[in-house]
Automatic annotation (TrEMBL):
Lineage: Bacteria, Pseudomonadati, Campylobacterota, Epsilonproteobacteria, Campylobacterales
Record's bilayer topology term: Multi-pass membrane protein
A GO cellular-component term linked to this record: plasma membrane
PANTHER family in the cross-refs: MEMBRANE TRANSPORTER PROTEIN MJ0441-RELATED, MEMBRANE TRANSPORTER PROTEIN YJNA-RELATED
Protein name as it appears in the record: Probable membrane transporter protein
Annotated TM spans: 6-33, 40-58, 70-88, 95-116, 128-157, 169-188, 194-214, 226-242
Intracellular or extracellular location(s): Cell membrane; Membrane
Pfam families linked: TauE
Family stated for the protein in its record: Belongs to the 4-toluene sulfonate uptake permease (TSUP) (TC 2.A.102) family.
Length: 243
């Protein structure tokens, strides 16, 4: 129980600072501590419900401009996330871990080659395009136990021309939709671990508060370096655990 509480605080801080659901850091920690991939996914998704709602509330005063697109992407993510129970039931733990690694490599490359701030305006996209982006992000993310920000943020920064901090705020807002859908789907399919997920989720609220507070004080270029460092460390952990 104490390990789960510590995992929650650490994950909450990462979630608030980096605008992620927390699965990026929580899933590897749970795997190393002895949980199998599908159990780690379940705990991670329940934690995301707590951290994403509270984190988005704290972000709301500074991120009002991104919420319009965020709602459309979020609805797509909710629909996609509802399919995750089927994926988790029918796909092996090993394949889910390989997908996680591929997503991390993609995210690192895309964020590395894209500036943290854009001089040009954001690209305007149709509602259908935003919904489709959200749908496939939610489908894949909930199946591997991450909120979707690791997939969504490179798309927002690289293709829709969001500044990095705005993209991470939108990414955490997106996690509300995808995580609730994932929680519903995994609960109905019998994969959810309610007690462990609740312990991690409640404790994560402490970390979220301090993570967002620190994020608002960091320069964008330094913030990009921190995101790349985090993703690289998690990639190394996943490669070690998988191979």
């Amino acid at each position: 129980m104490y390990d789960l509480a510590a995992f929650g605080i650490i994950t909450g801080f990462i979630s608030g600072f980096f605008g992620v659901g927390g699965g990026l850091i929580l899933v590897p920690m749970l795997l190393v501590s002895g949980f199998i991939m599908k159990e780690a996914v379940a705990i991670s998704i329940m934690q995301m419900v707590f951290s994403s709602i509270y984190g988005s509330f704290l972000n709301s005063k500074k991120a009002t401009g991104v919420l319009k697109d965020g709602i459309i992407i979020g609805i797509g993510g909710f629909v996609g996330g509802l399919q995750s129970g089927y994926i988790v039931t029918n796909v092996s733990n090993e394949i889910l871990q390989y997908v996680f690694i591929v997503i991390l490599v993609y995210s690192i490359i895309k964020i590395f080659i894209t500036p943290a701030e854009h001089d040009c305006d954001q690209k305007s996209k149709s509602k259908v395009t935003l919904f489709i982006i959200g749908f496939f992000t939610g489908l894949v993310a909930m199946s591997i136990g991450v909120g979707g920000s690791v997939i969504l943020t490179p798309i927002l920064v690289g293709f829709l021309k969001y500044d990095l901090k705005a993209a991470t705020a939108l990414g955490l807002f997106f996690v509300i939709f995808s995580s609730i859908a994932g929680f519903t789907s995994l609960s109905l399919s019998g994969h959810m671990l309610f007690t462990q997920g609740a312990i991690v989720g409640v404790c994560s609220l402490i970390g979220v508060y301090f993570g967002i507070m620190l994020k608002n004080k960091v320069h964008s270029n330094s913030y990009k370096k921190y995101i790349l460092l985090l993703n690289t460390l998690i990639l190394i952990t996943m490669l070690y655990k998988t191979f």
